[in-house]
């Protein structure tokens, strides 16, 4: 407990305090954090505190860049049902990206339910538009481009949304959910929303496909929304009774590490989720949390 | 009056057209109550199911016809106005008087007699609103989608995403072939001879004609007539007999073209009470050809459902034996007694799961919409079809009732499932199930689907998404009589997380 409290205060803050005049980023760079876990704040507040530990937004978004923010917008349900990413968080990331000088911030998902309804009723469309972002469709094959995955074990070819491939920066913003077929869905599974043929994954060893796709393009930033989590009946859920308000968030750059942390939050071991294990074994990321330098902030 | 007719006719055609082609559902579904309330057959069927408000519409149309003739055909019937538009496209329009053809009464009988026996079959095939609705849903709407998506694509090239593209899944080929053939036929009739359909085939036209011939107001030719023949040449109903100077009100659709074309002002629309000497053209000869003509309704029946190449090992044939009806149809018998296959619901269904059938619903029930999960699944949050149905064949349900309305029940053939055939996890069915009637249960290292019929509503999401081919592992068997599903109960949630700590 005490050790956590200590870290919570922030190694960065102590270090800079000692150095006094030295500029902040270089001092932090001495021992950078691999991942930040934040709790007890609003999604927006937790993001701001978390991103500060990783080195401010401008470390991820440079002026003039095109940014894709990829939330989960799979279902035609309201935000309280936690089947889609928190709209406030998505909008906030859009806002921060634009503030960092992004030329354009694009948001999309290849939805499961009717895409117009899902975009609207998730609250994400209006929130993103208000924040100055662009909500774009992903329901037509012409947006997709075929990509080969050299080291894949199952998913050798896949059609990927062009914006995901072409954007300068990709920010993956999943929500923590239970999942009938995938055990749980966090950032790796969230990327299923940038491919065209979803049933092909289900037909062809879902877990292996999820793990294979994780190497196509690693997101520049992963923000796991754990403000609300869908604890059962996922990924769609039946009612608000399936939802637990955890007020947590995990930020990092390694999807596998973030998913491992989310698995812990969900009450599982990372190794309980086969696609996390598979991606770890193939070297796409690191699910061994004990080897990571994690900052833990309780607001 | 002619201008008024053109204005109102255009307005009703446009309103109904826009409602059907409203790709982005901007117009509320319930607008159908106002828009389609004026359509005779839908309102008459609603009346037969006890809807008194619809009775007012029926009564009003009959009353108008009794007094002023077939105003309905030129002012309100979308198919009639569409015919007018088609014939207007022709540069040289030149119609000639034709004696009344009694075949129309045969068509009326063909429509009405099965009705007395409880079958809507012939009404479905011949009714003008239903015909128009089908043309609109199966031909105009796809065209509108094409235009919309082309515009969306062009804008996207400029980085503008303001027009959302509409996914289009098409219709089954036999249905499309039927609609195309039918449209070609009526378009040719309209192109060649104006309102021939209305005065030869349309049973509603024949019915209103019977009433109109005894109508109070009639078009009459006065002594000022010089016999120039202008009126006869522009009469798309071909009902002006210049020799006897009589206008056949049973065929006249009250378009007022003759009145405005007469240079002498010799044609007037006035009460016929005073001079009751107007002759009527009484039909004398019955053509047997009509009996052959009615067989046009049954084209060659062939099913060319495209099959994807089998790429998994599902080998047990599966499929439904009872069709899935839209939520609110209640039962096959009730549905078939009220639906005329106007496809307004097909056009407005956001997921395109509502598809026109050809003969899938059984003998004597062609063209009625049913749910086909090859095309999509019934949106859990959607109540459109019940709200748009002008006939009352699909009852409007509030969202809560609809979300438990069981239109079918899930069936599972586990040996076809990916988990068994490929020995890998899948879970697509459970993922999509809105009531968790399909859920995943651990089986060894994998998770297999299990089903609970009581909470299943038959939306078809599991069947739509099931990746097993050529035979699906999970599908919906329609309920012949719709029920209310049980509400699933999952109990209280146990949060696995402690209050204070990070679990890593």
With strands numbered from the N-terminus, the spatial order across the biggest sheet of chain B is 1-4
- Average residue pLDDT of chain A: 90
Give unreliable regions of chain A as ranges: 9-29
Total DSSP E strands of chain A: 12
Which parts of chain B are unreliable, with pLDDT below 50 for 5 consecutive residues or more? 276-312
Beta-strand segment tally of chain B: 10
Strand content of chain B: 5-15%
Task: Give the quaternary arrangement of the chains.
Answer: heterodimer
Distance between the termini of chain B: 82 Å
Cα-based radius of gyration of chain B, to the nearest Å: 27 Å
Largest sheet of chain A: 10 strands, mixed
Descriptive notes:
The complex is a heterodimer of chains A (299) and B (504). Chain A has 13 helices and twelve strands. Chain A is of the alpha/beta class and 299 residues long. In chain A, strands 1, 2, 3, 4, 7, 8, 9, 10, 11 and 12 form a ten-stranded mixed sheet that branches. In chain A, strands 5-6 form a two-stranded antiparallel sheet. The longest helix of chain A is centred in the N-terminal third of the chain and has 13 residues. Chain B has a two-stranded antiparallel ribbon. About 7% of the residues of chain B have low confidence. Helix content of chain B is 40%, strand content 10%. Chain B is built from 22 helices and ten strands. The longest helix of chain B has 30 residues. In chain B, strand 2 and strand 3 form a beta hairpin. By secondary structure, chain B is α+β, with helices and mostly antiparallel strands. Chains A and B meet through helix 6, strand 4, helix 10, helix 11 and strand 11 of A and helix 21 of B.
